[in-house]
Every structure is written in structure tokens, then in C-alpha cells.
């Protein structure tokens, strides 16, 4: 999967979660301490964003970040996907 597609999927998931919680973009920005431009770019899959700000948005949305070994040239043979 391409990095661009992965970023777009993350953005869509965050946007859907925000809407499920009934938060406007401005409300989510205020709660996370980020600007509207940042949240817009994150929700639209911008591949270069600040991790600290992403983490703040995740926290407001009640989400966490989980790392999983994936299939790539760098992954070990014993890698497992997240469940």
C-alpha cells in the first residue's frame, strides 16, 4: 500500500471519528490545541505532519496509536499483523 493511500485512510478514519463524536473541526482544534489548517490537512491525508500534533488529535478523539510489523523489505520473517 502506498504511503499516500495510507495517509488518506488515516485522515478519513480521523474525520469519521470526529464526526461520530459530534465535533466540528473548530471544536476538535480547540480541544487538541492545533490550528484548523493542521486538522484539515491531517484529515485530507497530508503525508508530512507533526507527530506531537497528531497525538493530540488522537487523544481528543479517544484513539491511540499502535505499531504493527507489516510486509515490507525491512520486516522480519516472523512479523505478524495487528489484530
Helix content: 40-55%
Count of helical segments? 4
Task: Give, in order, the helices and strands.
Answer: HHHH
Please identify the structural class as seen in this structure.
mainly alpha
Strand proportion, as a percent range, falls in under 5%
Major sheet size, sense and barrel closure: none
- Spell out the CATH superfamily: lambda repressor-like DNA-binding domains
Under CATH, the topology can be stated as 434 Repressor (Amino-terminal Domain)
Q: So what's the oligomer here? A: single chain
- CATH level-two architecture: Orthogonal Bundle
Task: Count all strands and give the number.
Answer: 0
Radius of gyration: 14 Å
Tell the overall outline. Answer: globular
CATH class: Mainly Alpha
Outline the low-pLDDT stretches: 75-80
**Mean pLDDT over the full residue set:** 88
N-end to C-end Cα span: 18 Å
* The number of domains: 1
Amino acid at each position: 500500500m502506498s504511503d499516500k493511500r495510507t495517509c488518506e485512510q488515516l485522515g478519513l478514519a480521523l474525520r469519521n471519528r470526529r464526526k461520530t463524536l459530534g465535533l466540528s473541526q473548530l471544536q476538535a482544534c480547540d480541544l487538541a490545541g492545533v490550528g484548523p489548517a493542521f486538522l484539515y490537512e491531517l484529515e485530507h491525508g497530508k503525508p508530512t505532519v507533526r507527530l506531537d500534533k497528531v497525538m493530540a488529535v488522537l487523544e481528543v478523539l479517544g484513539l491511540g496509536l499502535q505499531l504493527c510489523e507489516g510486509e515490507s523489505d525491512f520486516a522480519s520473517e516472523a512479523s505478524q499483523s495487528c489484530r
